[in-house]
Amino acid sequence: MTFADRFRPWHRRNAYLLLLFLAAHLITHAAAIFGADSQSAVMDIVRVVYRSPVIEIVLIALFVSQVCMGIALVIPRIRQSQKTAWSWVQIVSGIYLAVFILNHIFLGVLRGRTYEDVDTGFYFVAATMLSAPYNYGFIPYYFFAILALFSHLAAALHWAGRPRAVTLSLIALGAVVSALIVSAYGGLFYDILLPDAYERYMQNLF
């Protein structure tokens, strides 16, 4: 058994726990399709659980450990001389998710809440997709993050022997879900007026 192989079962078990949170998180963002009030209502319910100090610390620890184990697993896969298309799907989506997760937690959400004193709810996300020129970076940034999540899951199912129709359908579903969520926050379905606090946040972002 290689060094990386020791992490594989833990990476998988960790993923099962994180998927519970990620499913609730995606449902919250998908609620934005129906309006800011709908998204906020769902988020208020979900936050009762994951904004608990203990649970939030555990979640952050799970995400950071998942990224660390993922790095340990992806290095030997990159070094493989023979790589299939699914190998590349797993590698690229995994690296993208690792960067996104660390950036989203520490430079996004925690910075917004701790240093900028803004609520990281609907308008926090919408501000990044409505404020030019930053939206040209944030729109693909969020779109590919959701797509990478679905693609990484599809790759895991592929290696577990699931049918090609299932894995490809999961990637297609990820693209659709991502497009709908990004479109909602980008103001495609209804007009969004950003509060002044979020306008200032974007002006001081970089």
Automatic annotation (TrEMBL):
<protein>
    <submittedName>
        <fullName>Uncharacterized protein</fullName>
    </submittedName>
</protein>
<feature type="transmembrane region" description="Helical">
    <location>
        <begin position="166"/>
        <end position="190"/>
    </location>
</feature>
<keyword id="KW-0472">Membrane</keyword>
<feature type="transmembrane region" description="Helical">
    <location>
        <begin position="139"/>
        <end position="159"/>
    </location>
</feature>
<keyword id="KW-1133">Transmembrane helix</keyword>
<keyword id="KW-0812">Transmembrane</keyword>
<dbReference type="InterPro" id="IPR034804">
    <property type="entry name" value="SQR/QFR_C/D"/>
</dbReference>
<feature type="transmembrane region" description="Helical">
    <location>
        <begin position="54"/>
        <end position="75"/>
    </location>
</feature>
<dbReference type="GO" id="GO:0016020">
    <property type="term" value="C:membrane"/>
</dbReference>
<feature type="transmembrane region" description="Helical">
    <location>
        <begin position="87"/>
        <end position="107"/>
    </location>
</feature>
